[in-house]
Amino acid sequence: MKNIILTLSVVTILGFGFSGCSDYLDSDYLFDERMTIEDVFSNKDYSNRWLARGYYFLGHDDLQEVCSKKHMPFNFADDMFFGDGGYENWRNGNYDESGYDDNSQGTWENAYKGIRQVSIFLHNIDMNQEFTTEEIADLKAQARFLRSYFYWMLLRTFGPIPIIPDEGIDYTLDYEDLAIPRNTYDECANYIAQELAAAAGLPLTRGSQNIARPTRGAALALRARVLLYAASPLFNGQAPVEVQAGMVNRDGTALLSSTYDERKWALAAAAAKDVMDLGVYELYTTGVRTGSTDLAYPNTLEPQPDPINHFDEKNWPNGYKDIDPFESYRSVFNGTAPAYSNPELIFTRGQNQGSEGINVMVLHQLPRREGKGYNSHGMTQKQCDAYYMKDGGDCPGMNSMYAGQEGYTDPLRYNNASRPTELVAENELVNYPELGQLGTGVCKQYTGREPRFYASVSYNGSTWNFLNAEADQDEVKNVAIWYYLGDPNGFKQTSYWSRTGIGIKKYVHPDDISNTTVTAYDQSRMTNKVDPAIRYAEVLLIYAEALNELTSGQTYNIPSWNESTTYTISRNIDEMKKGIQPVRIRAGIPDYENDIYQDANKFRIKLKRERQIELFAETHRYFDLRRWCDAPFEEPKHVYGCNAYCSENQYVLFHTPVETPSLPSIFTTKMWFWPISHTELKRNKELSQNVGWTDPE
Question: What is the Cα–Cα distance from 304 to 590, expressed in whole angstroms?
Fold first, then answer.
């Protein structure tokens, strides 16, 4: 391997879209075409560039998570949509084994390219004499983390995938000799978990110049996520019969376990506890704000009374008396909280977000005329209803559009109270955190909601700040945005309108404004944002979910990641509260009633809803619905929203939920996993197709 010249001709092997080394050593990396592997890995600068190429693949468009729309449809499920093309095709399964539109099979190809890049690094970096022993150990741990992340993205997207033998590959062999089958899901998850434990020798923290490099917490948190999925119904003996039967290798080996193993939940809980016990992370909070006259930065509301645990009387982290829940949550995502000083951010790609990252997603959320954005991303009524009232109760009329449909008759999931459709009158006092006097004419169903609602939802009449607006450009600060028919952001014959009449504010900074009417994708007046690839709130929710699934009275002894201690894991309500309560306290919401904690079924429903709200627009919902086996029920439900074809004088009809005809949805067997392309199946004769999809002719 050391003497291979880097100008080898392109070779594709294993069905993984791998290429010869020259494919990676382009002019951007300034490798001399006559250099050998030994030349590269005996040089400190070249070795660093090789690893940097691995990071490049992590930020490739096809491997993005929180993104605008291209390449990765998984940020859009039953909670949010984009109206300017593509969403309806993904939601209806109108794609094939060659992909759809510009979302080709780039995830598979580029993840495996990344795996190859860092695997070569791992096999050769020890020859470098210019690094210290400690530096090499850190670099190898980074490479292991990257490789694990690539495998993870493949696993969650395609299901079980082939794990490349770590002893290396003989690139002179023919395709048929190199072909290897898919590993089982458990083999994949265990391999990734073991690799991440090996990578957990990473430092606990890094300086601000290395914020996008992984830490020990990043490795352990990703490990917790991987083990949570492995414990979940789809991968833990509870997959639907047709999925279980269809996910097999060519020799008949079952790729999904047919046996339920409760211990997997204990492993996931212990993995989350590994992160919690580091003592490095906490949820991001800001203090109480008073005396402000700026609509963009409103004063903190009075704490909501909590009759159960009196969170309103206690300071953070035991209560929300001294924090601003609205600003605390909003600032995590909109660029206010610096990545290097945000104690909640465990791992981020930083600005390595490809061409369709968070800022581009915000461009699609910004109103068309006032914000000069694309006004095409929006929220479904289902997601809008999911947010609690400020007292922790359900929104009146929650899910009422599903009345009579099977599955929505459970009182814990369905509230048939009438939905408010009257409007806020002029000078009427409404307890909004962001509106001030601009609340006039807003529907009362949007009043009195929890703080995360106002940080995430652009309801009809919501105030947008545009603090970077320029008067000489005919731009206005602090303006209410309406989605009525006839309004500038209402129904259009073009793509630029919200199909549900409900927009999205998450990730939007008060300064953000654009000028896409002149320059496409203009971001010159937007606050830069890092992606929240892994944050501590998710780890806490993993811990609570995993503990809840354990049989009451059953105890498991699980070693920590480095076997330095052993955890006693059980369905302990006090421990479950350590996971769920900080998330709700930061959100300014009263605690659950005791019966919720005592009943695993009730808590499971609450936990799922908490993930739906807290992790909205962070690429979790699409995969959560599948791992829980909820997708066949939730995904085919009609997408509802406001009646965007109604004008302001029809405000009652506008605010009465109706089916959104331009956003149809289905769920079929083939939609459990993304298809493996025919090109890859032809390259690797041992590779089997996912259930519901076809093999090449």
Answer: 7
pLDDT value at residue 4: 35
- Return the structure tokens found at 614: 């807290």
What is the band of 98 on the pLDDT scale with cuts at 50, 70, 90?
Answer: confident
Q: Worst-scoring range by mean pLDDT, 8-22, 447-461, 538-552? A: 8-22
121-143 exposure pattern, b = at least 16 Cβ within 10 A, e = fewer: bbbbbeebeebeeeebebbbbbb
Name the one residue in this structure whose structure tokens are 């050769």.
124
Q: pLDDT tens for residues 23-54? A: 334 334 445 667 788 989 999 999 999 999 99
d(CA 629, CA 240): 8
Q: Is the pTM of this model over 0.90?
A: yes
Question: CA-CA distance, 427 to 668, in Å (whole number)?
Answer: 51
C-alpha closest to that of 667 among 156, 378, 242: 242
Query: In the predicted model, what is the mean pLDDT of residues 568-596?
Result: 97
Tokens of 60: 């490739």
Tell me the average pLDDT across 643-651: 95
CA-nearest of 338, 297, 689 to 529 is: 338
Distance CA 303, CA 407 (A): 35
Query: Locate tokens 């990473």: which residue?
Result: 202
Eight-class DSSP state of 96: B
Strand partners, 568: 557
d(CA 135, CA 254): 42
Instruction: Say if residues 415 and 117 touch (Cβ distance below 8 Å).
Output: no
Give the span between the Cα atoms of 320 and 303, in whole angstroms. Answer: 7
Task: Compute the residue count for the chain.
Answer: 697
**Which tokens is 499 given?**
């199909």
Secondary structure of residue 570 in the 3-state scheme: strand
Which distant-in-sequence residues (6+ apart) come within 8 Å of 587 by Cβ? 325, 329, 450, 451, 452, 613, 614
Has residue 211 got a pLDDT over 60?
yes
What percent of the chain has pLDDT above 90? Answer: 68
With CA atoms as reference, report the closest residue to 527 among 339, 299, 370, 349: 339
DSSP state of 97: T
Secondary structure percentages of the chain, helix, strand, coil, to 5: 40, 5, 55
What is the C-alpha to C-alpha distance for residues 483 and 486, in angstroms, rounded to an integer?
A: 8
Q: Model confidence over 499-520: pLDDT tens digits?
A: 999 999 999 999 999 988 888 8
CA distances from 60 to 50, 57, 353, 542 (A): 16, 5, 7, 27
State whether residue 28 is helix, strand or coil: helix
